[in-house]
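Example record used in the benchmark description.
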Amino acid sequence: MGASLFERDWAKALEDSRHSYSLTPLHDVVRTWQMRLAAAPAVDAYMDSGRDETGIVDLADVLGARR
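Model output (structure tokens):
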């Protein structure tokens, strides 16, 4: 995850907001990225532990579908 992914998500949400006259898409992007950043240390610790990654759950499945 990098700045370019956030920028892509933000640009799409900004465009959606322009069309819908709603700030909800922007709030959703901020909320999603806050959760990603909060989870990053746990993800790093897991990846560094050498655990088996079979059966990993996609982040989108955990966070829910984007609106």
